[in-house]
Design a protein that fits this description.
By secondary structure, the chain is mostly helical. The chain has a domain of 56 residues: RNA polymerase subunit, RPB6/omega (Eukaryotic RPB6 RNA polymerase subunit, Alpha-Beta Complex). The protein contains 5 helices and no strands. α2 crosses α3. The longest helix is centred in the last third of the chain and has 22 residues.
Length: 95
């Protein structure tokens, strides 16, 4: 893989936001000294190495991000509706 592109990674992650999150998580792991999962990383920055690991499916979320968000959505909506009905601004509930 001579050059890594976002499209290479998006085949393995649900959307761009999930890709950014996963890349940042992996970058932090590498920065703290985690072992590299791909070879031939001479001269690459850690963020590029993170993207290469995602593109080759060596790094991925344990669960599908879309599924997690869909499961959490009803709870967030009910919290928001309860907050609106109660007259509270809800800052404590959603944090």
């Amino acid at each position: 893989m001579a050059r890594i592109t976002i499209e290479d990674c998006l085949h393995n992650v649900s959307d761009q936001f999930a890709l950014v999150h996963l890349t940042a998580l992996r970058y932090r792991q590498l920065h703290k000294g985690a072992a590299l999962l791909v070879s031939n990383t001479d001269g690459n920055k850690m963020v590029v190495t993170s993207l290469r690991e995602i593109a080759t499916r060596k790094v991925r979320f344990r669960e599908d991000v879309g599924d997690v968000m869909m499961k959490a959505r009803p709870k967030l909506v009910s919290q928001r509706l309860g907050t609106m009905a109660g007259g509270d601004d809800g800052a404590d509930e959603l944090t």
